[in-house]
Write a structure and sequence with these properties.
The chain is mainly alpha-helical. It folds into two domains: 1-57; 68-102. Helix content is 57%, strand content 0%. The protein contains two helices and no strands. It has helices spanning 28-65, 80-99.
Length: 102
């Protein structure tokens, strides 16, 4: 699958806000623990998104290099059916690249 963040186990968003917090607060440890969990969860989600963007950029760069959909033989005339079959194969291969189905 192209974008799979199923291993993301971060806490639910959004987090309740804090009005006032002092170093003498009894709930400071709880707050710091929740803040750490949220930061870790957000970091995992951001890493997943960055991986998906990098994968997308790689696929698009490959498509940019492959502007000719197939190797055309010099002097060969293709029928409409042949071109249709070639285009279907190009579409299939690009779909497989995006979905990860090789």
């Amino acid at each position: 699958m192209f974008l799979n963040c199923s291993n993301f186990t971060g806490p639910p968003f959004p987090c309740p806000g804090v009005q006032t917090l002092t170093w003498n607060d009894r709930d400071l440890d709880v707050y710091l623990s929740e803040a750490t969990q949220l930061t870790t969860g957000l970091e995992a989600l951001l890493r997943c998104i960055k991986d998906a963007v990098a994968q997308s950029q790689g696929i698009l760069a490959q498509w940019q290099r492959d502007t000719m959909f197939f190797e055309r033989k010099e002097g060969r005339v293709y029928s409409f059916e042949e071109l249709g079959a070639i285009m279907q194969e190009v579409i299939r291969s690009r779909h497989a690249a995006v979905t990860g189905e090789m």
